[in-house]
Design a protein that fits this description.
There is one protein chain. By secondary structure, the protein is mainly alpha-helical. The protein has a domain of 86 residues. The protein has 7 helices and 2 strands, in the order E-E-H-H-H-H-H-H-H. It has a two-stranded antiparallel ribbon with strand order 1-2. Strand 1 and strand 2 form a beta hairpin. Helix 3 packs antiparallel against helix 4. The longest helix has 24 residues. InterPro entries: FAM20, FAM20_C. GO terms for molecular function: ATP binding; metal ion binding; protein serine/threonine kinase activity. This is FAM20 C-terminal domain-containing protein. Its cofactor is Mn(2+).
Length: 149
């Protein structure tokens, strides 16, 4: 999404402060000829997915209603339709196929019970004290200064 978000500030009147305008170039679906696999790295590295998410993906992947047909049926009702060029639908189906391939690789590497999780807690990160997590950096910095004085 780095290529689609941009901010500009405009100073229309000399005696008033400028204001920011958020410009969205409408590239949420990206380029149709490039698949940015960085987006899917967390799944590829951790091989963890919710059962409900996998079920939804399987329904779209194995039909009866293809993902792109469902998406098109929804988008065609929008007052500013057409929203997507048809080449985006081809890219979406291709990306879904790649996603399913990555998930299949996970099932080849790990047992099902380590992949399909309703919750995930990274055991490599120690659980901290809730009170410590609620403290802001400013609070911590103030206490350090008090101790030094």
């Amino acid at each position: 999404n780095q290529d689609r978000h941009h901010y500009e500030s405009f100073a229309v009147f000399e005696n008033l402060p400028s204001y920011a305008i958020h410009l969205d170039n409408g590239r949420a679906f990206g380029r149709t000829d490039i698949d940015d696999d960085d987006i899917i790295l967390p799944l590829r590295q951790c091989c963890v997915i919710r059962p409900s998410t996998l079920n939804t993906l399987l329904q779209f992947y194995s039909k009866p209603q293809a993902l792109t047909k469902t998406l098109h049926a929804s988008l065609v009702k929008d007052p500013v339709a057409p929203i997507l060029a048809y080449k985006h639908y081809v890219a979406i189906e291709r990306r879904l196929g790649k996603l399913m391939s990555f998930i299949l690789d996970c099932f080849k590497q790990k047992p099902v019970e380590r992949i399909l999780l309703t919750e995930f807690h990274n055991t490599n990160i120690p659980e901290g004290n809730v009170e410590e997590e609620e403290k802001s950096e400013e609070d911590t910095g103030d206490k350090k200064e008090d101790k030094q004085n």
